């Protein structure tokens, strides 16, 4: 690759020197990229800065530019609802990531045993990922609705005392989000792991088998360590989904009962758009960004390091 | 592996049976919500009573579908979600086409016309894939206002294009990196220009990545709720927002069959795309994680 690249450069350079149209050609790639670069600069980096500035003001209904320092962050830290939302994110995110990884890995390993109809099963496991979180929320709200859903069904089978009313239980509502989100995303993790399994060199497995290792042992000691990069990307993607989770909460629990199942994303929207607390909403958005960066930066760091070494 | 599997002892057979049982059970877990949604959507309201979650309809009916499409209430208005379905189409089609076209050109320029700083530029643009969109909502609302695009379909198209090109650029960039540079260098020597090389050499081999990009953008934008709810008015809402309003409209008795029919309608386009082109859908999903 490096050989062809260094060979291409002088030719492009000499072609540019040849004529004026050549000069234009040399600038064309930059011209084509310029709008996207400008968009990224303004709408991503500029807006991040803008939101940060708003978070330093006392904006309420409309943005104002009266600066109050970090007072909004202090208010946020003293806000009970924000702590509920943040704690919920830790609980929801942690369980969501852990269960998706476990379920995805188990399904991928089971599917990798020369299963008949593997394609069909894969398709079934993965289809929820194509749905909108709103649809997922609406469906699970129906299934988890105590009066007509799963609870009522099990009771009609004769288990009169069966209880499954997490949706209306303030202590349990956040776990309904976990159920629905796992249903939606675990098939995707399965697909990631399956691709990883298929990428492992067969000769390693053969060697382990010749050594007389048992199948579970081979998986535990040889295969799963090989999947570490997949685990890493899966954790990255899943935590990203967790932090951004908004639609699912809106559709499934509405953040309720009360604000018992609020997440930072719904907190931000409620304060910035419906409760006329733009300053506070901006501060919460900045903390969400901080959360994403806390996951992203170690990931990119290790990614770059492994590339340099590999 | 082969000899292990061929030795079919009783234990091995039992293991095999358990394996299939577990896999089928998992399939049931994934399929059940869809099945319940579908079955409920064709039941008359009278058949929806406690304990009938899984029962098949005795008198299947399409009335809930018709009602969801044409007359169910979404907030103040009662005209079904059909209108909003077309809103979604009107937003999705241009947004997908524009963002894919820009992504293709960006990916081409970034890989075949490298210049000093092009890698840095790519890294800077890539960051747009990762930000939580909450961090751009308020400035975007104000900017759309200045542009006179508040609550309009054009505004939503713009928003989806802006935050979609990071992904489409990533797809095309990673795809074009693997296209041999020799061909492009030779064409440059022959005096072929930027667009000519793109048109003649890159585009003809781009079919798979175009499909990936179109499917990814289609699913993302069709399923979007955050931008839809933040930047639309009642007459420009996408279908996801209308569905949420329909389900949460509190006037009159809850018609669960209509809710489910509406959810089916909102889900069908992306489901159909997934069934028809699942392979490309998966490739789009993994493109972000398994970098080329």
UniProtKB/TrEMBL annotation, chain A:
Species name: Billgrantia ethanolica
Membrane topology: Multi-pass membrane protein
Lineage: Bacteria, Pseudomonadati, Pseudomonadota, Gammaproteobacteria, Oceanospirillales
InterPro entries per record: ABC_transporter_permease, MetI-like, MetI-like_sf
Subcellular location: Cell membrane
Keywords of this entry: Cell membrane, Membrane, Transmembrane, Transmembrane helix, Transport
Statement: the UniProt record of this protein carries the keyword Lipid biosynthesis: no
Main localization category: membrane
Record family assignment: Belongs to the binding-protein-dependent transport system permease family.
Keyword Isomerase in annotation: no
Protein name according to UniProt: Sugar ABC transporter permease
Ranges for domain ABC transmembrane type-1: 86-301
Automatic annotation (TrEMBL), chain B:
Transmembrane segments: 20-40, 84-108, 120-142, 154-176, 197-218, 260-282
Topological category with respect to the lipid bilayer: Multi-pass membrane protein
Compartments in which it is found: Cell membrane
Keyword annotations of the record: Membrane, Transmembrane, Transmembrane helix, Transport
Organism, as annotated: Billgrantia ethanolica
Record-linked CDD domains: TM_PBP2
PANTHER family: ABC TRANSPORTER PERMEASE PROTEIN (PTHR43879), GLUCOSE IMPORT SYSTEM PERMEASE PROTEIN GLCU (PTHR43879:SF1)
Entry similarity comment: Belongs to the binding-protein-dependent transport system permease family.
Protein name per the record: Carbohydrate ABC transporter permease
Coiled-coil stretches noted in the UniProt entry, renumbered to this chain: none
